[in-house]
Amino acid sequence: MSLTVGHVARLAGITVRTLHHYDEIGLLTPGERTHAGYRRYTDDDLIRLQQILLYRELGFPLDEIAVILDDPATDELTQLRRQHELLVRKTERLREVITAVERAIEARTRGIALTPAERLELFGAFTPEDHDAEVERRWGGSAAYEQSRRRVASYTRADWLELRAEAEAISRGLAAACEAGLPPDGEHAMDLAERHRGHISRWFYTCTFEIHRGLGELYVSDPRFTATYETLAPGLAAFLRSAIVANACRSGA
Amino acid sequence: MSLTVGHVARLAGITVRTLHHYDEIGLLTPGERTHAGYRRYTDDDLIRLQQILLYRELGFPLDEIAVILDDPATDELTQLRRQHELLVRKTERLREVITAVERAIEARTRGIALTPAERLELFGAFTPEDHDAEVERRWGGSAAYEQSRRRVASYTRADWLELRAEAEAISRGLAAACEAGLPPDGEHAMDLAERHRGHISRWFYTCTFEIHRGLGELYVSDPRFTATYETLAPGLAAFLRSAIVANACRSGA
DNA sequence: GTTGCGCCTCACCCGGCGTGAGGCTTCAGA
DNA sequence: TCTGAAGCCTCACGCCGGGTGAGGCGCAAC
What sign for the dihedral angle of Cα A122, A226, B165, B215? Predict the structure, then answer.
């Protein structure tokens, strides 16, 4: 039940030449040859080929793949586990690139230009440490959330009306500033951002500058929030985020 | 404000030689040279470089990248969209490979052996139809969010305006029904809830009745959402939740 | 003014195949 | 039984995307 080069090549989606090459460099030597010299690949060869192709897809050079596969200390299951981990890491890296592109698109559609250097950094460099920070920011705020729930539960209708009026005033101010083309890091926008922060602190939970910045990120990254702001004025979500950042910087945070 | 080769190389995480190479083959010619012959890269050059690196990461040969980037019919935004789509496809492919490896691991740990040919097919060939269903089941929770991000990333300003108009119409209808004292489980309210669900499905992600009910809960439990609705009409958050529940029941879900 | 670093242009080299050339095997069909 | 088309074999050269010097100039600082 052994297969010829052509069969294997079609099965694996590679060329015959590639199999020849792997044979030449000793990476994958077919288990048998016919008396006429034809290569015949056994089941074990196919397994090895699959491993090779996976590591290749992951970017390993062929000689390293040979070392990895010929390590007598690791069996097939270990290989699979290692491959799995590498694959997962690769998807994570890809996700980073995707979000970078998404940000670039968002920035573009809303007319905010990143500096070219910023974009290169976004894409090229690795920033492993900001990842943890982001997760923290995202799920670490559960205390604030609890606080918020408790307070909100006791609000009367009058409270809601007051809250609503205040929120609307701030939103209107922001929308107006945004549509007027004011800079998000200008005095006025920063003041509005600070009012926004105060509003949250007063009505919901203690909103530190850090939490506030997290909210800003959320407004542009989570479409449900983005939509809320974009319906008030196009580009408002990003405008608000920038204003929040500028305001936090101004306060030395 | 132009940069030298060394600076650019460090920024982008590539070597000087690579930049020389790109200059040689005409893929990226620095905007200026000093009188001594030093390359000086402008902001535009950096933007182009970022695009180049993205396409390179996606596996395009350099000459094709040149063709893509020099196509006068496509602007930067179009490029970004195309890159985005390619990246998404690549992650999808990667995910397939991961599940294939996972299956191989499962089979191994349970002592069931796939035939080598099966494994090669799993890895190499395409199996599109079982893909969707299984991925759904597996990553179901975040799938909606992913979908949403993907779609939102490609929205134009006009899209946002349309979305906004639609959302406002629904909100106004809900607020009016609420203030008029209509029952949230009445025909009218249920119809509005259904329009709400359709709105989300159309613009963000496929919103099943179950997901919709989850959103309803969110609107009354998360103050950030509650506030949004309460500002439209007092009691609206709870009204909407009830309407959503009633609508889901009506549909037999 | 010289020291050190960064830049320049050749020019050769390497990995991972693609792409013939020239010749043998295999197998289906006439 | 013969024949032609695939498919296989072994050289052997070529291409892409750079790596890696060699040999020399430019420039800023001490």
Answer: positive
Answer for B195: CB within 7 Å of strand D: no
- pLDDT band for position A128 (cuts 50, 70, 90): very low
C1' (D13) to CA (A17) span, angstroms: 15
A114 or B50, higher pLDDT: B50
pLDDT tens string A81-100: 888 888 888 888 888 788 77
Residue spans per domain, chain B: 5-70, 76-153, 157-250
The full length of chain B comes to 253
CB contact under 8 A, B203 and A97: no
Has the ipTM of the complex gone over 0.90?
A: no
> What is the predicted pLDDT for the residue at A87?
85
Asked if A58 and A90 touch (Cβ cutoff 8 Å), the reply is: yes
d(CA A18, CA B152): 42
Which CATH fold topology does B157-250 show? Globin-like (1.10.490)
Q: Is the CB of A39 under 7 A from strand D?
A: yes
- Within 7 Å of a protein beta carbon, the nucleotides of strand C are 6-9, 15-19, 24-26
Residue A133: the pLDDT is: 27
User: What is the band of A46 on the pLDDT scale with cuts at 50, 70, 90?
Assistant: very high
B21 Cβ contacts chain D strand, under 7 Å: yes
Q: Where are the alpha helices (DSSP H) in A110-156?
A: 116-124, 128-139, 142-153
Quote the pLDDT of residue B117. Answer: 60
The CATH fold of domain A127-250: Globin-like (1.10.490)
**Secondary-structure class of domain B5-70 per CATH:** mainly alpha
Contacts of A199 (CB under 8 A, 6+ apart): A166, A167, A170
* CATH label, A5-73, candidates 1.10.8.80, 3.60.15.10, 3.30.420.40, 1.10.1660.10: 1.10.1660.10
Contacts of B231 in chain A (CB under 8 A): 160, 163-164, 167-168
Q: Do B19 and B39 touch, CB atoms closer than 8 A? A: yes
Measured between beta carbons, which residues in chain B are less than 8 angstroms from residue A109?
77, 155-157
Q: Does A153 have pLDDT greater than 60?
A: no
Measure the CA–CA gap between A176 and A192, rounded to whole angstroms.
Answer: 11
> What's the CA–C1' distance between A38 and D12, in Å?
20
